[in-house]
Amino acid sequence: MERLRIKTPDDFISLMGHSLGYWPQESLVCMVLDDRRIGGTLRVDLPSTTTDEARYVDHVVRYIQTDRQATGVVFALFTHAAWSPGDPRPHEAVMERLTGELSQHDIILRDGWLIGEKSFTNYLRMTNDPVKTYSLDRITGSQLNAELVFRGSSIAPDPGFHVPVLAQRDIHDEIIKHCGRIEAMSPPVAIAKARTLWGSFLEGNKMPSDDQSAELLAYFKFVSVRDRLLGDVPGLNENLRDLLLAQTIQAPHWARVDRATDLLLHLYSRADQADAAPILTSLGVIQWWEGRGSRAHECFQRAIEADPSYRLAQLTDQMVKSGILAPWATDRNASYQPPMNRGPNIEGLGMA
């Protein structure tokens, strides 16, 4: 299998952006290492003055420990906060506590960087005189960044979903008509018809017509149908509860999950108000499966704005905000990888 090698700090920092899908702001980002192989990526907000440092570090360590093969970590602090040579390093107490806690589990903090608005520097060498800084332009020009961009990857400026706020065309009346037809069916018949229609698009490459979109949007408004359609997304023959909670041993078929995301965004562009809540919630669940907590939270918040009483969005948002991670996201053999990263192994070299 082809291997991509990380040779410079520029490569590592670039990979952080590609792994997250966006350029983080005011964040601590940790990448887990198993010897020289890259594992999962964690992003958390930087601690504030009121943050309980012990709990904060415990949360980070617990996530890193979910990879039982972890032997090291590289990190970056992304912040626009000003820093001058001679000043204490930003968040120094937290990082020292994190270093100590990880060492208790035989995990070494291998390297790290402070990344500002226009430049970056090695966090572990900020006490040296003089302190060396490097332009962020080096990151966009790195060899690994060029290879990942060639494969179709990109780094968005923020974690948000860039989707239309309003429907392209008002098809609410058509949705209501389909709801009437669905209500006249028995639940097993409605679920079977919904799965047939949804499955035809998951396995194909075309987008639904406006009438097909209205029918699918209507199906998603029925809780039992919605859950079954969402459970069909990973393409696994497993218990529905385990699928929704990402608790299967077998990894999802991530290309199929990507296809579902595209379909749901297409449906969302044709939904309005309460019709959009089930779609936004389903998108949020998929983002949670993929380990993208910030995007999941945004989807759930938009769903609640569309329908303040939408219960699943409320519950799943509480789960994300409490720091509960999808089991798939914590398993390196099952976790989501962007399409351009699914083929090659990525190894780290020259990290010191």
From TrEMBL:
Q: Which PROSITE patterns match?
A: TPR
What is the protein name given in its UniProt record?
Answer: DUF4192 domain-containing protein
Highest taxon of the source? Bacteria
- Stored Pfam families: DUF4192
Organism of provenance: Arthrobacter silviterrae
InterPro entries, per this entry? DUF4192, TPR_rpt
Keywords tagged on the record: TPR repeat
Each TPR repeat occupies one of these ranges, namely 277-310
